[in-house]
Amino acid sequence: MKTSLTWLNEYLNHEMDLNPESISDLAEKVERTSVEIDSNTTIAQEQDGLVVAKVLSVEPHPDSDHMVITQIDAGEDEPIQIVTGAPNVAEGQMVILAKVGAHIINHENGELIELKAVKLRGESSYGMLVALQEIGFSDKIAPKDFEEGIYIFGQEEDLTPGDDAIVALGMNEPVLDTDLTPNRADMLSMIGTAYEFGAMLGKKVIVPDFDLVEYENEAANQVNVYIDDQELVSKYALRVVNNVTVKDSPLWLQKRLWNAGMRPINNIVDITNYMMLTYGQPLHAFDLDKLNGRDLHIRRATADEQMVTLDGEKRKLRVGADIVISADSEALMLAGVMGGVSSEIDENTKNIIIESAIFNPSLIRATARRHNLHSEASARFERGLNWDATFNTLDHAASLVDALAEGQVAHGRIVAINNERTDTHLTLSTTRVNKVLGTSLTTDEIASIFDQLAFTYEKNDDVLTVIVPARRGDISIEADLIEEVARLYGYDNLPVTLPYGPTTPGKLSKQQRQIRASRRIMESLGLNQAISYVLTSPEKAQLFAENQNDGMVTLDYPMSSDRTTARQNLLSGLIDDVVYNVSRSVQNIALYEQGRIFITNEINAQPSEIEHIAGVLTGNIINSSWQKNKQENAVDFYDVKGIVESYLAQIGTTDIYYVATERHSNMHPGQTADIFIGDEYIGFVGQIHPNITKKQKLAPVFGFELNLFSVFNHIVENVQFNPISRFPQISRDAAILIDKTVPNGEIYTSILETAGEHLVDVTVFDLYMGPNLPEDKKSLAYTLTYQDSDGTLLETDVNTDFEHIMSELQSKFNAEIR
């Protein structure tokens, strides 16, 4: 919130020193004690040479149909001639003059420019009459559009020609822009901020006073209020003001608004915004004569209901969710968010209704998010309002309408609902405060801090019973009070001590170590890590999901239509990454991703988060050359299966086997296998279905996805690593003739089971089926490698073992040794 320190000073019994050094010290104190400060600025930066001036005369330019020649009284001995094209300049006006040598802002590019005397169509001009946008005001806070012309002071302002315009406009007022946390709703008002600054600086707060005069007209005879649903609103009241005159606000009010970052509109709207900034209580004004009826209803939106809000947007209301204020059946406003154009205050308005309320904050928050309509009012309703300020703000606003718009406040405040607030009483002992903060404060010292905060309390020995004021909705438990003591005492003043008791070294958990090991293994196998979006579309979320009957986790308020659902697999995100790379001429891709998927089996239940790891390969394993073409180098099922096998072996699992499957609808039915460790399913590996890759114009893509929780359950903890032998190896080759029906795996297993302790490797290096062999036979050739870790093997030992293996193959498989 932008806080003008000049305005804030009005609510403190001793004004703050506003010289630049003191303001910097104050900003630092606020940051250390309360909230962060985004900026410490004024509207005036390097502008100068700006004075208040009076237009003495206006004459047509002899050589222009849109420019005029004016004589300006700038408080000097002689009038100054100014040639201007401002469409709204007139004799007798008090305006802003930028004199020769002045520095103003170029409205188009924001650059600082210096004014010089010029001739315009042959007539000399010694300065420039300016709009606010030309001296540093943004379009968001300037009360008139730039095209409407120069800024004109009201005739009632106490200004004389030659006055410093920067001072007159409040451009030199220091403004602290505070970055409020959601819990500090009290500082969304000047009064609440005054209490905070007063507590830090030891100053008392002066609450503004006002006189409200009611006239003979009865408010109850002009409007009725009905609450159709008690859950929508806790407090609601109206004031009726008759015979108002809508016009520009006086300068003092405009200054307060634009220094707070708000644009002045007219005196009625400006009063409601001024009161919101003062007390933190949003108000809204309706044109009473524009209502279809005099019965106002606070209700939920009905089916197919629409309205046009003040920003000009036509909005379809959500049935049963949006709160509306309606006159009979016509929706006048989105309660707590924004008013509607049908009852907008304009220059013809004569009778108005001002409302003040506390609406259901959850419903206001949902409406603001649903319509993407976050207003100053909704920000305050969402965070919580000062329960005690609702009706006081309304009465103060009515009194200002009487003073600034010549209105007549109708007799009686119309109160539709006024739920009572229960005071929060919290007890706090001195012993508890000192134990938590490590201090040695006395009860009186703690009590003095609550005096600074203007909290009411009762003291009984070393126990304080604190009554939390309505403006501090963020305080509800003892710890909140201790925090108030700590920050006002000063975090820098808290004693510094070493921790006591046993300490433990920080380290990663077992699961974290295993996840990091998984990533290192994948990278050692040649895969690059990819990080995809957790949120995706419903179709992609379930594209490779194991069980598509599991419930999807969807967002109520997604940022975009393609980021609505939490993912249930990692492969779909990796395929998006492949598409992204291929579209940029990267053909050979090896990626992996480790992350969580989200599954829920019950409506509104907390989803299960499961760690997965997945990978994809496409393109060529090695670049093609004159020796090998692309087709020979292209990745295949066995390449991706080899990566999975190597990973599972290095992570420390055993008893792994693969089962061919066709159950994955988005995987190739002839090149996909489920992966098991023992009896537990851990994932799958195979080729992405060609129907998917062809749509994306991709080469064949192979991938895998594993459940890391399942993998980790089977890691063998007592893995033993043996040293590499220093002694030579001995190899023997064997070719056997065997039935075609006998798989290689059975022969491989038989060799390992039959061999002695020195066999270290078995490799099949040839398969032959063709001429010179019976039709039902095949020839397999193996290399058996022997090695001893403790010494050099003898030929006799190797020969004996080799002959024993061959004999076993002959007897078990009826093999013929060739």
From TrEMBL:
Binding-site positions, Mg(2+): D474, D480, E483, E484
EC number from the UniProt entry: 6.1.1.20
Keyword Oxidoreductase assigned: no
Sequence ranges assigned to domain FDX-ACB in this UniProt record: 725-818
Catalytic activity: tRNA(Phe) + L-phenylalanine + ATP = L-phenylalanyl-tRNA(Phe) + AMP + diphosphate + H(+)
Cofactor: Mg(2+)
Keyword presence, Magnesium: yes
Gene Ontology biological process terms, A to Z: phenylalanyl-tRNA aminoacylation
Keywords noted in UniProt: Aminoacyl-tRNA synthetase, ATP-binding, Cytoplasm, Ligase, Magnesium, Metal-binding, Nucleotide-binding, Protein biosynthesis, RNA-binding, tRNA-binding
Protein localization: Cytoplasm
GO molecular function, one term: tRNA binding
Residues annotated as domain B5: 421-496
A Pfam family of this chain: B5
Primary localization class, coarse: cytoplasm
CC per GO annotation: phenylalanine-tRNA ligase complex
Cofactor note as given: Binds 2 magnesium ions per tetramer.
Domain TRNA-binding: 44-166
Source organism superkingdom: Bacteria
Family to which this protein belongs: Belongs to the phenylalanyl-tRNA synthetase beta subunit family. Type 1 subfamily.
Quaternary assembly: Tetramer of two alpha and two beta subunits.
Protein name per its UniProtKB record: Phenylalanine--tRNA ligase beta subunit
